[in-house]
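Moderator note: this is an archived Q&A kept for reference. The question asked for a predicted structure of one protein chain; the sequence and the answer are reproduced below.
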Amino acid sequence: MRGFRVRSDRRAKVAYDPVKRPPFDPKRAKGSLFEGSLFDPTPASPATPGEGAGSGASRSEPVPARKSDDGARATDARPSAPASAAPAPIPAPTPALEPAPKSAPAAARAAELTVTAFNELVARTLEDHMRGQFRVAGEITNLSRKGHWYFSVKDARAVLSCVMWQSDAARVAFTPKEGDAVVVTGKIGHYAPHGKTQLYATRLEPQGVGALELEFQRLVKELREKGYFADERKKPLPPHPRRVAVVTSRTGAALQDVLKTARERRAGVEFLVVDVRVQGDGAADEVARALRSLDRRALELELDAVIVTRGGGSREDLWAFNERVVADAAFALRVPLVAAIGHEVDTSIIELVADRRASTPTQAVMLLLPDTTALVERTERAARDLRNAARWSLQARRDEVARLERRHAQASPALRVARIRAGVERASGALRDAMGARLRSERAVLDRLAARLASQAPAARAAAARAAVVALGPRLARAVRGRLATQRTTLLHLERRLRSAGPEETLARGYAIVTTAGGGLVRSTDDARVGERVEIVVSDGSIGARVESTQPIDGGEGASISKSREEKSPRGSSSGKSGGQSRS
C-alpha cells in the first residue's frame, strides 16, 4: 500500500506497479505530509499474477474476464462462508500425447502444435473423457440475460463459466439473480476460438441464497445491532475541506474521476492518495490498515475528510469492502468518511458505516467540495449583506447620536425657559382663538333672537297682516270671478237641460197639447167626445177646435203605448205623440 500527494488542480501521474507490496508496518512509515510516500515502498518478492475469472460477454460467444480497477484481470473474492453444495467430482482427462523420454533432445520431447490444433485437442479430450451430463452446485455471478444466458457459478475457491442457450433458458421456472445458489446441469465443453472451458447448461435449479449473500446479511444484522449504522453517531462533513485522503487503487478510473471532479469544482484542495488493492485476497486488510493509519495521523496530516472508493463490479469483486475488519476500521475513524463503492445499485457494509454514502466517486467529491461558482455567489451575497448591515448600523448610530444631541440641548435652562415661553405663547394664542370663536357664536345667537323678537312686535304683525291683505285681495277677486264663471256655466247648462225637458221644445218641433173645455188633457180618444169643443196649444199660441170624430189606432198598439206613457207621466204633463195631442 502506497500513498502520494496530489492537488486537485494537477493531474496525478502514476503507473501500475505489478510488484506485490509488503504488509503494512507503521514503523516503516516515513515522511511528513506524505513527502515521497506514506508507506515504505520496498518491494517484497515478486508474486505470481492472479488468474482471471471468465464470464459471458456476447450473444454468440463468451466474453473475456472483466478487468478490475487497477488494470489486472479480476480474481475471485474470498468469501467468508463456503458454497451451499460442493461440485461434482470430475474425472481427470487422459493426455492425448505421450510425453517424450527425458533423454530425448528438447526438440523431440514435445510435438509442436498451433494454438488452434492445441485447443481442438483439448476440446476432443474433454468430449472423449467427460461425456454425459454434470450437475454443478455453486453461486451465480456475472449474470447476463440478453437472449442467451451467460453467467458463472463459483464456490469458495473456483469459478466455472456457463452458457445457457435461449431455448433452454425459456424453460427455467424462476428468474435467477446475482448471489443465488443454484444447481446447473449440462455438458462440459471447450470453446476453441477463445480457449475457454465452460459448462453448456441445459437445466437450472434454485438452491436458496448464496453464501456471500448470507454472509452479507448476517454481518449487516450484527453491525446494526451494535449501532454501526446509527445516524446519531455519524459525523457531519466539513463545509470547506482543505485536505482530503482518498483510499483507492491509484491505477483505477475511480481516482481519475475524483481528481477530475475536484479540479472542476474547487481547485486548490489537496488530495492525499493512499494506494490499496480494491479486490482480491488481502484487499480488505490493506483498506483497514490504511484507514487505521489515517486515523492515527489525522492531526499530523491535517486531514478534513476521507474518501474510500472504487469502480463497479460483481459482489465478489466488491467483497473486500464487506469484511468485518474494514467495518471496524471505518467505525473507529474519527475523521468524516465518505464511501462510494461500485454503482448505485451496489450496497456495501463500509457505505452503511460511513458518515455519508455516495453512488459514484464523482458524487463523493461533490458531497465534500462545494462548487466554486456557488461559493463565489455565496461570498458575494454575504459581502452585500455585510455592506447593507454596516450601512444600516452606521445610520442607526447616527440617529442615536442626533437623538442624544437633542436630549443634551433640551437639558439646558435657557432652552427650558424658551420652551416654556413658547408653550405659554401657544396657549395664549389658543385662548384668544377660543374666546373669539365663543364671542362670534354668542353674537350670532343674539342676532337670531333679536330678529325673532322684532318679528313678534304689534306694528310688525299689523304690517305683516296688511301686507297679507294686500297680497290676498287680487287672489280673492280672481277666486270670486272664477266662482261666478263656474256658477254661470252651471246655470246655463241647467237651463239648457230644463228647456230640453220642457214642452216648449217639444211644441217647437211640431207637437201640440190638446185640452178639453174643462182644461183636462186629452190623452186618449176616450177623453174627447164627438162635438165637444177642445183647445189645441202650439208653440206660438192656441187654436180652438171641435171634435168631429175619433178613430183608435188599429191593433190597439197605440192605445197600449198611450196608456203606458200615461202611467209614466204625471197628470197634466205633456208627452210626445200621446193620445191627447194632435198635429196642428
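Archived answer notes: The first helix runs from residue 115 to 129.
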